[in-house]
Amino acid sequence: MKTILVIGATSAIACACARIWAERGAQLILVARNFKRLEVLAADLSVRGAAKVDCVQLDLDDLDRHELVLNRIFADHPAIDVSLIAVGMLPEQQACSRDASLAVQQFRTNAVSVIALLTSLVPHLSLQGKGAIGVITSVAGDRGRPSNFYYGSAKAALSVFCAGLGASLFKQGLTVTDIRPGFVATPMTAGLLLPRKLVSRPEQVAADIVRAVERGQSVCYTPGYWRAIMWVIRQIPDVIFKRLKL
Predict the structure, then answer these.
(1) Quick one: how far is CA 70 from the chain centroid?
(2) CA 201 from centroid of its chain's CA atoms
(3) Helices (H), 24-148
(4) 82-85 β-sheet, strand order
(5) How far is the CA of 182 from the CAs of 52, 96, 109, 161, 199, in angstroms?
(6) Cβ–Cβ under 8 Å, residues 118 and 85
(7) What are phi and psi of 79, to 5 degrees?
(8) Rounded distance between C-alpha atoms, residue 171 and residue 107, angstroms
(9) 98 CB contacts (<8 Å, ≥6 apart)?
(10) What is the pTM of this model?
């Protein structure tokens, strides 16, 4: 029986991943800001077959509580097989351009808080000598685009951190998977004008995520065609790129 830690558990993608693990009989530790939503999710996962579900309240922006919460989790669960970090916000680009405090806050939520959490999480996993970490970033971090470079810059920073972290942990037998979803139909993207043919359901990307994390894959584009899409976008010369509406 695997023990899975899901941080940011009430997000649509994390919920879909947790349901897959629950159906496999895993033990789940759910962490999120809203405890009532966690309890509802826990009840659903128990019905789906989870061996046990524990709920822990944490606002990831409260950096001072990371270590305390993780200490409590590992005291109760000394061996955690998979840790999925699914935390983030999608700021409105124009709002960030008008409000420096909002620009900084989104960077804190999307990058700084996750980096801080991982920094506190890794020593616990190193002590147990095993563990797979999955971190949801975004294809937006592959290249700064005019439409979302505030969000993209935070995800890019997180991707670079994950690459370095994964390399540093390789000899310890720990893996880090940088998960880069494309457009996904979630509450966070509701209301955005997105190309319908490129929008996936959370359940679709969840299957990719669970597979990639359990295999210890370094980078996971989901759905897989986003790897090709972003490769093309990265190859566009700046002189052309600056004239495109992306």
Answers:
(1) 17
(2) 16
(3) 35-48, 66-76, 93-98, 100-107, 113-128
(4) 52-57, 27-32, 3-7, 82-85, 131-136, 174-181, 219-222
(5) 32, 22, 19, 20, 8
(6) yes
(7) -125, 105
(8) 31
(9) none
(10) 0.94
Token output for 20: 């897959």
Instruction: Return the structure tokens found at 116.
Output: 């801080």
Q: What is the pLDDT of residue 139?
A: 97
221 part of the active site: no
Bond preceding residue 223 cis, omega within 30 of 0: yes
Query: DSSP per residue over 30-56, as a string?
Result: EEES-HHHHHHHHHHHHHHT-SEEEEE
Q: What pLDDT is attached to residue 191?
A: 66
DSSP string, 156-214: HHHHHHHHHHHHHHGGGTEEEEEEEE-SB-STTTTT----GGG-B-HHHHHHHHHHHHH
Q: Does residue 192 register a pLDDT over 70?
A: no
Contact 110, 88 (CB under 8 A): yes
| Amino acid at the residue 14 | A
